[in-house]
Amino acid sequence: MARHGALEVVTGAAVLVVAAGFLAYAVAHSGRSVSSGYTLQARFEHIDGLAPGSDVRIAGVKVGTVTAEQIDPKTFQAIVSLTVRNDIELPKDSSAEITSESLLGGKYISLSPGGEEAILKPGQTITITQSSISLEQLLGKFIFSVTSLNSAKGGQDSGGRPADGAQQQQGGGLPPLNK
């Protein structure tokens, strides 16, 4: 009986070593790295779906990472801190936009460099920003506009004809078509 228990302990230890190896491999190859570069800030009205660790990209190429998010208690705007690689020098009139990777994908910050000669220094704020666009809000506005159009038609059926069954004369004095 003691020999059977020792075999189970050795097998359990081997399973734990293999699991620890898989965990170490997953962490090492997860694609996340420690952010290096200089820090900038940007203010947004909405940052829906953006989180620390999200990408910062220029022309689709990752050049940094979102490091922190906080709320300004006076303006109630979201303040996003981000790092940008040291070899990227952004003009002061650069803009930041929160963009979706896809309909179901995560969000990232897309930077568009400006044309000014002056360069943003570490700790400065990107002043030209565009907030996250909420898919739910867009759908709500679309549905509202469609229902407004339908109610504006008033007493017409789906074919644009009066709903009371009265027949209209078609152009050119021709009699109405029989269905």
Summarize this structure as a short list of keywords or feature phrases.
single chain; alpha/beta; eight-stranded mixed β-sheet; 25% helix; 26% strand
Task: Give your account of this protein's structure.
- By secondary structure, the protein is of the alpha/beta class.
- The model is unreliable at 165-171 (pLDDT under 50).
- 13% of the residues are buried.
- Strands 7-1-4-3-2-6-5-8 form an eight-stranded mixed beta sheet, with no helix packed on it.
- It has helices spanning 2-28, 135-152; strands at 38-44, 55-58, 61-71, 78-84, 95-100, 107-112, 125-126, 128-130.
- Helices cover 25% and strands 26% of the residues.
- The chain contains two helices and eight strands, in the order H-E-E-E-E-E-E-E-E-H.
- Strand 3 and strand 4 (78-84) form a beta hairpin.
- The longest helix has 27 residues, at 2-28.
- It starts with a helix and ends in a 27-residue tail after the last helix.
The rounded Rg comes to 30 Å
Distance between the termini: 91 Å
Oligomer: single chain
Shape estimate: flat
- In percent terms, what proportion of residues is strand? 25-35%
How many H/I helices? 2
Mean pLDDT value: 82
Short structural description:
The protein is α/β, with parallel strands linked by helices. The chain is built from two helices and eight strands; from the N terminus they run αββββββββα.
Describe the protein's topology.
Blueprint: H1 2-28, E1 38-44, E2 55-58, E3 61-71, E4 78-84, E5 95-100, E6 107-112, E7 125-126, E8 128-130, H2 135-152
Parallel strand pairs: 1-7, 2-6, 5-8
Antiparallel strand pairs: 1-4, 2-3, 3-4, 5-6
